[in-house]
Every structure is written in C-alpha cells, then in structure tokens.
C-alpha cells in the first residue's frame, strides 16, 4: 500500500481541491493555496512562539481623572437600540459578500441598534449615585435628618447630610474605580470575528458588528451574532443562488429533489465541478444553465454549509447541520465548514439576548444580600426597642416630647436613631467587595458578580478540569504503536487526513497530530500527492471518533481516528491483533498517555487497523504544590476529565490527588442509588470519561450534602454546571458561552490562580466580617449607655457631638477595604450567631467603660478631670477613641494594619482631641447639673491637656482589656463553631426515596380489547453493561 502511494502523481493533479459538502480547510495566510499545500506550509513554518492569528493590539482608552462619574466601559450611544425587526431598512440586509458594508455606514447603523453585546442597560451615573441613598438603614438616617430639620438643629441636619453624601460619594467612586479596572481587562477576553468591510477581510471585536455586516464563520469560531447563512466560503458564486431564493422566498424550507437522493446530488455536483475544471466553452455554458435552473438552486439549498453546536440553547448533544438561508444563533459554536453569513440582529435582539431579557429584572443578590438585610433589620429592631425604653423612662421623669434645648423625647429619639443605625455598613461592605474585585482583576481573575467573592471564600470542594488546568495543555506525540505489517508513515498520514485542517483554530489533538509529521518526512510526501477532502466529520461523543472521506486519483479512502475501543469496533481484525492492540492501549493509559486508534478503509475493502497514537499532556510544574495548598485551605480538589479511567488514575498519582477515581458512567448508571451514590461522590478523588451532564450531577450531589462547590470549565457544554455551581470559574481560553455562565473568568493558566483567588476572597471576607462585628458593637455601645443615661441621670450627649461620632466612625472605617487581612485556613462563613454574641459582649464592655469614666466625674476630686474640663467633651473623646480603636481588635492581630487604616483612624483621633481641647460644639444644653466636686466644669467646653492625656491612656487600657477578652472568646471552641454549618450533612431516607423515584417511569400502551389508553407506573429498564 505505502509503496504504491509513494509513487509520484501527475503534476496536473489539483492539490487540495474541495469536492464535497464540507471541507475542513481554512487558512488566513494561504487563502490562495489548496487545502493540503496550505497544511504542508503550516507544518513547515509553525513555531511555538507564533502569536495567535487575528489578534490585534488595541489601545484601551482611559477615562480622564476629572470625569470621575464616568465608567470606563461606558460608550455614548445616542439612541436606544430598536426592538428586533422594527424600522430596519430592507437594503441593510442585502449586503454584497465581496464588498461588505462601508465603514462610513457603521456609525449610522450602530446608532439604530447599539453595540453588539449582551450588557445590562447602562445606568445613568446620577441614578447610580442616588442608589447609595436607598435601603432600610439609609432611610432611617434620612428620617433622622428630617427630624433634625424639624427641630431646627441646623448643625445636626448639615452633618447628617454630610455623612450621607460622604458614604454615597466614597461608595460610588471606589466602586467606579474597581469597575474600571475590571472593564479594562475584560477586553482581553472579548470575542473577535472576521468580517468583510470596504471589500477587505478584517478582524474586529464582535461588539462592533452592526446589522448587514458580512461575517465569515468557520470551524472553531463562536457565532458573533444571529446571522443568516449565505453560501459556502469556497463557492462565492452561489451568492446569486442565495439572492434568487431569497427573492422567491424559498430559503425557509428544504426541498426533496425528484428522482435524486442526496448522494446522487453530490455525485452530480462533483461531475459539474469536473466539467467546469475542463475549461471548454460548451461545458461552461451547460454549467451556467444548470446554475440558473430551479433544480440546481434547490440542490444548493439542500447542501449543508456548516455544522454548529447548539447544545447550550437546545440541549442537542450533536452538531446541527445548517443550510443556505438558515439562521445561526449568537454564542453557538461552529464545528465544521466555512461560510459567509449576514448579521440579521444584534446581541440584545438575538435569540439568546431575548431569553436573557426575560430574567434581566431578577437580579440575583445572593447570600451576601440576605446577610446584610438580616443584620440591618435586626439593628433597626434594636433601635426601636431602645427608643421605646428611653421614652418610657422619659414619661416617668415627666420629660416632654418637645421642648427647648435637647432634653426632650424627640431629641432622644434623634440621638438613638443616629447612633443605632450603621449608615456606612452597606457602603463599606460593597466598597470592600469592589476593591477586592479590582485586586483580583490585577491577578488575572475577572469577577463578573461581586457576590461571587463571598461564595468563593466559603467553597470547600473544587471540581477541576484536567486538561489545561491541572496539566499544561501541551500535548506531545510519543512513540506510536503500529500494527504488524503496517507502515508508520502511512499511519501518520492517515491520522493527519482524519484531522481538522483549519489551521486558525486547530484542536490540540489535531494540532499535535499534524505537527508530528515533521518527524515523518515520508508521511508528508504522502500528503503532497494530490489528496482532496470530500467530507469531514468532527469528533462527537456518540461515535467517539473523527472521520474524513478523502480522494486520491480514482480511489476513495475513509480515514478514522478516535477512542481505541471505538476504532477497534470499526474493524474486523484477527483476535490476536485485537488483543495486542488492547494491551498496548492499556499500557499507554497506565503510563498516563492518551491513546488514539487509527484505521482506514479503501473503496469497498474492509477496514484496516493501522495502530495507536500515544500523546502525553504533562502536569504543570506548580500543580502538585497547588493541590497541597488547596487541601491545606480545606478545599480538596476533585478531578473531572473526559480521559479514560487508567489515564485519570495515573494523572492523579502524579499530582498526589489520590487514586479513588471512578468511571462517571458507572457512577450514574452503575446501579448505585440514594445515599450510597452520594457517599461515593463525596469520597471520590475524581471521575473519568465525564460528559457535561455528569459534571452537573456531581455538583448537584455535592450541594445536596451541604458543600459549597466551585467548578471550572472551558467549553460551551460546561455552561450548565458552571451555572449550577456555587462559584463557576471559566478557565483561561474558555469559550464565550462558558465565560457568560461563570461568576469568575481567569485570564491566567493553571490552578495556582484559583488558589490565589480563594486566599484573596477569604481576606476580603475577613475584612467585611470584622467590620460588621465592629459596627454592631458600636451601635450597641451607645444604645446601652445613652438609654441608661437618659433614664438614670436624665443626661445625654449633645446631638451635635453624636453626629460627629457617627461621622468619625464612617471616616475611619472606609479604609477597611484597603486593610491588610489574613486568610482563614478553612472555608469561611458568616456564623451570624457568633457575630451577635461577640458583638453584644464587646458593646456591653464599651458601655461599662464609658459609665466608669462618667462615674469618676461624680467623685469629690473630679475623677479623670484634673484641672478643668467638660463632661460632654470628655465623654465624646473617650467614646470616639475606644470606638475607633475597636477595629484593631476585631480585625485580629495576625497581620499589621495597613497605613491607610492607621492614617485614617489617627487623623480622626486628632480631630476628636481638638474637639475636646477647645470645646467645639459642647454647649451647655443636655449636661447634667454639675456634681459637687472640686473640678471646674467649664461651660465653654474647654478641657485641659492633662485630662486629655488621661483620657487617651484610659481608652488605650480599655482597648487592651477588650482585646484580651476578644482573644479569649475566640479560643472558646463551642463559640468558635457557633453558627457553622455542617458541610457533610446527609439525609439517607430522603436521598433513598428520591433515588427510587428516579427509577420509575410512566408507560403508555393501548388496550387491545377496549381500545383505550392505559398508563402504567413501572420501573425503568436498566442500561446494558458497557463493554470493557
């Protein structure tokens, strides 16, 4: 066989001609070359460091610093995009495929339709700013401002409004800054496409497409917009057929040709091609007559142009053939073929876009929003409780609802409303998330949903892909196994024939197969003999093989490459050869090699088993260490791979993952049910030979056991499981559909990025948790002290000073978002019961400390006041210092605080000290009768420096004491686990019941006697055991 093929062919043989319905050819640099000459050139010039074709550097425009209200990804679109089909000029969709649209027409069309992207409606910056004044906590503060206005407390009103404006501005600006960082990096994952404009083929961002653009869709591409197929890329002359069928409205249906089946039609088409190539005038005339006939047009209409993967939309597992005039949908993937298409709707008006609009209003706020709402609601209830207690005490003391000065019940209510509601809580937590998202973006992790940071911090199981994540995704060809009597060069040539030849988007396996021909020069010579591809069928999960029908001279060859068992089933070889073949496949698998069988069929001869290719994808250098780090973080890694079981086990051994790896089909359909099935999923180290539905099932079972699960994926078919996971992660190089479904998109390869993201998310979570604990304690501190002060001694701190205490607390803690935080060694969660217990204890201790300093002022010597001072100002300074320093307690002592946090708190403390020294806003109203003592209570509010130093020392001592108590509380085991959920809960009864229900099916049959329908509840038939 090989010697006959190696004889030189006639020079006039057309190399690389495409005679069939679908060719895998596609080449940017060599569009004028035939399929196989272009492939040979690719083998010759390929270099590992060659940049990807079609990538263009584009300068990212930055928003000027003075336009602080502008988000970087905001684009000025003068008009709102029009609904689909409304007011679209008919000539817009009649673009010529050779000329395309003019660049001068793009802007006009974009004004009508907007950018071609699935984006939420651009929010008006002013409306966005106003959103920071909405929410239950903020409404109470706004009500307090109105109350101050009604009481003519202009200073209080101004400061409260200042607090609200400060929180809104800081939140808006910092979130905008973080969004700009994320937006600037999102350009790195933006979809690109090839279009025809101004008569030139150009590569542009998919978002820049407009209606009427001519796009070139080829194997490996993601469809950039809903588009109508026009004609095959290699047959531009069929554009006339398309126009006529469009004019006659015959594009919408397939037509059955009389007396001709599909194969005969193809043969006739090939004969026409051969006549056309003959270059005689009469033959050309006949071909032109046929081209204008209805028969010819219908024949072209019935020939598929491309095949697309619509699984994410329709659930179909196999690629769907698309014909002239068919619509291909946005975000679907082209599996084979190359064709021209015209854009008929932008992303927002596409099939996918309209579906997305149905749920656009239902924004998933996640668990984080629920936690914040529960804390806010609880604090509001506490405020109402303390106000009620204060009013009841006031009635017994005959204090009026209104009255001069601040000693009235409305002022008491105003004070408690100000100090009892943490106005900065929503802003600080959101800002912390936004700043964290910006940091993650710089680490090549794009956070698409802020609440995903909280989810990632609590993840306790990571389901990871193998290829490209655990391994380097750099396949290398090892020494192949060649069947007895066969030639290795012929086998390598057949393997290359049974590969995609679209060199712009080669599958990694096809790429390494083709490039391996550098080591087999005789195999390359075989490919140079004048082959032509008649039909190419890419890999599908049912047949588990790739097939290519190729022609050489008068002979037709069917070349196949695929899973060893699938290829073996094609052939009828001797048992001895089959046994050796299976043994070698097992040996390759045990060594961690991926093996592919190769077979060929010539004309009507039987299939010939040529041998096995062996490939190796080595683990990344850092993967083993990364997996160890993940385990130390309490996040075991489960490997989900489509490779064979033996390969998966060998990879797990290399990575120290454990060898409890199971075949996913055996798991799902192997007779395991209920709690036994869940136990196996929980204990397994990985699963082999998985399909997308298996990934979904594994994630679902883990979640049913109470685990927070992260899932990595890269393909269109991974989208369902990425959505299902608590934190879906699209790895580097993931498809647009996977990126859209994921919560986080990684731009860097490998698993180390995931571990870094987990650590960072836990640091962010720690910042939020420490701030929440701190803020609850502050609210309880003043509520307890002031309410008891109002009831017992009929005294309160002036409202003017109270609002500044609230202002200082917010000013100081905005810097929490930039604090140095540690990451917890185990998955984190809110543990709200523990937060409340600890916060109540801290709040009570702070209240006791304030009562102690107030009590000393009743001593004959004035207590803490040495020479002269003011009760109001001393209390103000002590409260401000202890509350500001409390954040150093709740943040923990494992890391040093950041300079931003230290600087903010020090600045606020200095201002509070100046208030005390010079008696700012102290007044006289609200102060109790001067106790009989030797110190001079100055009614101008001034306080001597010695007293101020003593207050600082006392506050420092209080903070140290509270820090010791806080440390002891965190050492109490029952308190440390209070509110922590069981991450491995099981309900065997419910799991077993559900498993038994899944075995049942409703069977329908027709009663032969009565003729009526009968429905019977029966057990599903068990699937046959798969061949070993």
UniProtKB/TrEMBL annotation:
This protein's record includes keyword Transmembrane: yes
Residue ranges crossing the lipid bilayer per the database entry: 129-148, 154-173, 370-392, 412-440, 772-793, 799-823, 835-853, 873-889, 901-921, 941-969
Top enzyme class = translocase
Where is the Cation-transporting P-type ATPase N-terminal domain positioned along the sequence? 84-153
Q: Which Pfam families match?
A: Cation_ATPase_N, E1-E2_ATPase, Hydrolase
Q: Which UniProt keywords apply?
A: ATP-binding, Hydrogen ion transport, Ion transport, Magnesium, Membrane, Nucleotide-binding, Translocase, Transmembrane, Transmembrane helix, Transport
Which segments carry the region annotation Disordered?
A: 1-35, 256-284
Q: Which GO terms describe its cellular component?
A: plasma membrane
Q: Which residues lie in Low complexity bias regions?
A: 275-284
**Organism of derivation:** Hapsidospora chrysogenum (strain ATCC 11550 / CBS 779.69 / DSM 880 / IAM 14645 / JCM 23072 / IMI 49137)
Q: Which domain of life is it from?
A: Eukaryota
Family matches, as Gene3D superfamilies:
Calcium-transporting ATPase, cytoplasmic domain N, Calcium-transporting ATPase, cytoplasmic transduction domain A, Calcium-transporting ATPase, transmembrane domain, HAD superfamily/HAD-like
What this chain does, per the record?
The plasma membrane ATPase of plants and fungi is a hydrogen ion pump. The proton gradient it generates drives the active transport of nutrients by H(+)-symport. The resulting external acidification and/or internal alkinization may mediate growth responses.
Q: Where in the cell is it found?
A: Cell membrane; Membrane
**The family this protein is said to belong to:** Belongs to the cation transport ATPase (P-type) (TC 3.A.3) family. Type IIIA subfamily.
MF-aspect GO terms: ATP binding; ATP hydrolysis activity; P-type proton-exporting transporter activity
Q: Name the membrane topology term.
A: Multi-pass membrane protein
Q: What is the protein named?
A: Plasma membrane ATPase
Task: Please list the reactions this protein catalyses.
Answer: ATP + H2O + H(+)(in) = ADP + phosphate + 2 H(+)(out)
């Amino acid at each position: 066989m090989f010697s006959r093929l190696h004889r030189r062919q006639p020079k006039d043989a057309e190399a690389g001609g495409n005679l069939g319905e679908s060719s895998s050819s596609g080449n940017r640099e060599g569009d004028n070359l035939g399929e196989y000459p272009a492939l040979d050139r690719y083998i010759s010039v390929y270099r590992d460091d060659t940049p990807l074709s079609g990538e263009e550097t584009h300068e990212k425009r930055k928003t000027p610093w003075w336009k602080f209200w502008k988000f970087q990804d905001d684009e000025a679109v003068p008009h709102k995009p029009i609904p689909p089909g409304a007011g679209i000029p008919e000539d817009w969709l009649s673009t010529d495929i050779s000329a395309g649209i003019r660049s001068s027409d793009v802007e006009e069309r974009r004004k009508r339709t907007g950018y071609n992207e699935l984006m939420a409606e651009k929010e008006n910056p002013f409306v966005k700013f106003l959103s920071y004044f909405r929410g239950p906590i903020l409404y109470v503060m706004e009500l307090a401002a109105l109350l101050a206005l009604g009481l003519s407390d202009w200073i209080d009103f101004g400061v409260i409004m200042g607090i609200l404006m400060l929180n809104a501005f800081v939140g808006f600006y910092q979130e905008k800054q973080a969004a700009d960082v994320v937006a600037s990096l999102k350009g790195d994952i933006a979809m690109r496409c090839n279009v025809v404009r101004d008569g030139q083929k150009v590569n542009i961002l998919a978002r820049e497409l407009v209606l009427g653009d001519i796009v070139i869709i080829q194997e490996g591409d993601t469809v950039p917009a809903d588009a109508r197929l026009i004609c095959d890329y290699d047959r531009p002359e069929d554009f006339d057929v398309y126009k006529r069928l469009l004019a006659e409205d015959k594009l919408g249906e397939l037509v059955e040709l009389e007396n001709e089946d599909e194969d005969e039609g193809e043969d006739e088409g090939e004969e026409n091609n051969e006549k056309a190539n003959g270059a005689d005038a009469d033959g050309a005339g006949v071909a032109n007559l046929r081209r204008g006939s209805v028969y010819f047009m219908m024949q072209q209409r019935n020939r598929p142009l491309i095949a697309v993967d619509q699984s994410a939309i329709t659930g179909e597992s196999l690629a769907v053939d698309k014909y002239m005039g068919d619509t291909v949908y946005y975000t679907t993937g082209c599996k084979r073929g190359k064709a021209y298409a015209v854009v008929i709707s932008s992303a927002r008006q596409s099939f996918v876009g309209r579906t997305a609009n149905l749920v656009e209003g239902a924004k998933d706020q996640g668990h984080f929003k629920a936690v914040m709402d529960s804390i806010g609601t609880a604090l509001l209830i506490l405020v109402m409780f303390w106000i009620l207690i204060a009013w009841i005490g006031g009635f017994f003391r005959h204090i009026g609802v209104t009255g001069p000065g601040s000693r009235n019940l409305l002022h008491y209510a105003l004070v408690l409303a100000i100090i009892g509601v943490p106005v900065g809580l929503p802003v600080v937590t959101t800002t912390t998330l936004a700043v964290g998202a910006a940091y993650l973006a710089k680490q090549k992790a794009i956070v698409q949903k802020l609440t995903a940071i909280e989810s990632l911090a609590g993840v306790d199981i990571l389901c990871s892909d193998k290829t490209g994540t655990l391994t380097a995704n750099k396949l290398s060809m090892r020494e192949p196994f060649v069947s007895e009597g066969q030639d290795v060069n012929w086998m390598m040539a057949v393997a290359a024939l049974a590969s995609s030849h679209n060199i712009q988007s080669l599958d990694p396996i096809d790429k390494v197969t083709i490039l391996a021909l550098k080591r087999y020069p005789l195999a390359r010579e075989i490919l140079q003999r004048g082959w032509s591809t008649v039909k190419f069928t890419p890999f599908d999960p049912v047949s588990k093989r790739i097939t290519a029908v190729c022609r050489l001279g008068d002979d037709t060859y069917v070349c196949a490459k695929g899973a060893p068992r699938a290829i073996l089933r094609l052939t009828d070889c001797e048992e001895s050869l089959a046994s050796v073949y299976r043994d070698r496949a097992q040996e390759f698998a045990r060594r961690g090699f991926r093996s592919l069988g190769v077979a060929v069929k010539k004309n009507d001869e039987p299939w010939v088993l040529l041998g096995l290719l062996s490939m190796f994808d080595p683990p990344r250098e850092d993967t083993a260490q990364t997996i160890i780090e993940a385990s130390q973080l309490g996040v075991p890694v489960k490997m989900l791979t489509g490779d064979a079981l033996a390969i998966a086990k060998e990879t797990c051994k290399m990575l120290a993952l454990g060898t409890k790896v199971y075949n996913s089909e055996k798991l799902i359909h192997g007779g395991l049910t209920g709690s036994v099935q869940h136990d196996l999923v929980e204990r397994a180290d990985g699963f082999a030979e998985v399909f997308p539905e298996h990934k979904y099932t594994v994630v679902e079972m883990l979640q049913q056991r109470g685990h927070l699960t992260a899932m990595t994926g890269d393909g269109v078919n991974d989208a369902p499981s990425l959505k299902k996971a608590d934190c879906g992660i699209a790895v580097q190089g993931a498809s647009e559909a996977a990126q859209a479904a994921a919560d986080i998109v990684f731009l860097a390869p490998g698993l180390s990025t995931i571990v870094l993201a987990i650590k960072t998310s836990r640091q962010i979570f720690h910042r939020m948790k420490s701030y929440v604990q701190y803020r609850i304690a502050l609210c309880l501190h003043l509520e307890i002290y002031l309410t008891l002060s109002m009831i017992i001694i009929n005294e309160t701190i002036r409202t003017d000073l109270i609002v500044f205490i609230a202002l200082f607390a917010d000013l100081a803690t905005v810097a929490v978002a930039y604090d140095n935080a540690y990451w917890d060694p185990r998955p984190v969660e809110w543990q709200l019961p523990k937060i409340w217990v600890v916060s109540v204890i801290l709040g009570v201790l702070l209240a006791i400390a304030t009562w102690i300093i107030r009590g000393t002022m009743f001593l004959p010597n004035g207590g803490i006041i040495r020479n002269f001072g003011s009760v109001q100002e001393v209390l103000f300074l002590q409260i401000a210092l202890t509350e500001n320093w409390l954040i150093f307690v709740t943040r923990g002592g494992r890391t040093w605080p950041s300079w931003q946090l230290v600087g903010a708190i020090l600045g606020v403390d200095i201002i509070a000290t100046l208030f005390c020294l010079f008696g700012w806003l102290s007044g006289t109203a609200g102060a109790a009768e001067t106790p009989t003592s030797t110190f001079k209570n100055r009614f101008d509010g001034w306080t001597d420096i010695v007293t101020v130093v003593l207050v600082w020392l006392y506050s420092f001592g209080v903070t140290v004491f509270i820090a010791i108590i806080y440390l002891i509380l965190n050492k109490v085991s029952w308190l440390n686990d209070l509110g922590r959920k069981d991450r491995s809960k099981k309900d065997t009864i419910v799991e077993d019941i559900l498993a038994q229900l899944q075995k049942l099916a409703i069977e329908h049959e027709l009663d032969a006697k009565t003729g009526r329908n009968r429905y019977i509840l029966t057990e599903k038939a068990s699937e046959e055991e798969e061949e070993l």
